[in-house]
């Protein structure tokens, strides 16, 4: 998993149901399909770490943000690796979606 500094701007681009199931406590949620319309919510003056479930959608989002001039980093392994590493998560469903 890509190291994410504690003070980093963490952007979660997963869908609403994935977000509710479990996300990083400090993450900002903008689903990938809404990112273009909501890009002004993403800061342009700090590195942005982009996360999804395993890294595919966040790679696309990071590439697009970098194309716009943002400093975006894909979090490889996504929230799946985040959970397996034991990093803190908040769940609105009360269950960790990455644990069988």
Task: State the end-to-end CA separation.
Answer: 20 Å
Helices, by number, come to 4
Report the biggest beta sheet as strand number plus sense, adding barrel if it closes: 4 strands, parallel
* Number of DSSP-assigned strands: 4
Helix-and-strand structural type: alpha/beta
Count of the domains: 1
Low-pLDDT stretches: none
Residue-averaged pLDDT: 91
Percent helix: 25-40%
- Strand/helix succession: EHEHEHEH
**Any idea what the radius of gyration is?**
13 Å
Strand order of the largest sheet: 2-1-3-4
Beta fraction: 5-15%
- Please report the first level of CATH classification, the CATH class: Alpha Beta
Could you tell me the CATH topology label.
Answer: Oxidized Rhodanese, domain 1
What's the overall geometry?
globular
- Full CATH superfamily name: Rhodanese-like domain
InterPro entries: GlpE_sulfurtransferase, Rhodanese-like_dom, Rhodanese-like_dom_sf
Protein name: Sulfurtransferase
Domain Rhodanese: 4-91
Keywords: Transferase
Overall description:
The chain has one domain: Oxidized Rhodanese, domain 1, CATH 3.40.250.10. The chain has a four-stranded parallel beta sheet, covered by helices on one side. The model has no long low-confidence stretch (mean pLDDT 91). It is α/β, with parallel strands linked by helices. It is built from four helices and four strands; from the N terminus they run βαβαβαβα. GO terms for molecular function: transferase activity. Pfam families: Rhodanese (PF00581). Keywords: Transferase. It comes from Planomonospora sphaerica. InterPro entries: GlpE_sulfurtransferase (IPR050229), Rhodanese-like_dom (IPR001763), Rhodanese-like_dom_sf (IPR036873).
């Amino acid at each position: 998993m890509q190291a994410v500094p504690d003070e980093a701007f963490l952007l979660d681009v997963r869908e609403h149901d994935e977000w509710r199931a479990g996300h990083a406590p400090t993450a900002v949620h903008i689903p990938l399909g809404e990112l273009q319309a909501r890009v002004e919510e993403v800061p342009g003056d700090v590195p942005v770490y982009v996360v999804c479930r395993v890294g595919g959608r966040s790679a696309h989002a990071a590439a697009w943000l970098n194309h716009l001039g943002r400093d975006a980093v894909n979090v490889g392994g996504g929230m799946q690796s985040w959970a397996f590493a034991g990093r803190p998560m908040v769940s609105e469903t009360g269950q960790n979606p990455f644990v069988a």
